[in-house]
Amino acid sequence: MKNKNYYELFPGVLTKGYSNAESVYIEDDLFVFLRPAIKNGYEPFESFNRFEIPKENWVQIISGFVIIREYLYNHQTTELAEYIQPHFKTQTESFLKKYLKNRVLIDEIINDLITWIEEQLITNECITLIGL
């Protein structure tokens, strides 16, 4: 993921450096769809920072992911503009075009991410989210 903005999700408290094999990585192109649910579930969240998000917050965030998946599946791009949050607002149209090409893939990735988070929370009290 060289020369790209991305987010790392690490199971538990991160006590070592970044780029860990046990982590999940999300490129900014997908993260724009996830950001609203994360921000709603964990208000201190901001891009390009590190947060140890507790288990109870992830439950709310996952609920937000489910709502986003349903919304993405049922609405056209013009209606989506107010629901995605790219780091730079000028990128909204570009993200919407990419979304149309990757609609099914985005749904599958969000579903896989939900499964991964739920599995990690069985043995961890938090998941560390790092914006890089």
Write a brief structural summary.
It contains five helices and four strands, in the order E-E-H-E-H-H-H-H-E.
What is the CA-CA span between the terminal residues? 10 Å
Provide the residue-averaged pLDDT: 85
Q: Which strand-content bin applies to the residues?
A: 15-25%
Backbone CA Rg: 14 Å
Element-by-element helix/strand order: EEHEHHHHE
Which segments are poorly predicted (pLDDT under 50) over 5 or more consecutive residues? none
Q: Helix/strand-derived class?
A: alpha+beta
Q: What is the overall shape?
A: globular
The figure for the number of domains is 1
Number of strands: 4
Order of strands, widest sheet:
2-1-4-3
Helix content: 40-55%
In DSSP terms (H or I, runs of 4 or more residues), the helix count works out at 5
Q: Please outline the major beta sheet.
A: 4 strands, antiparallel
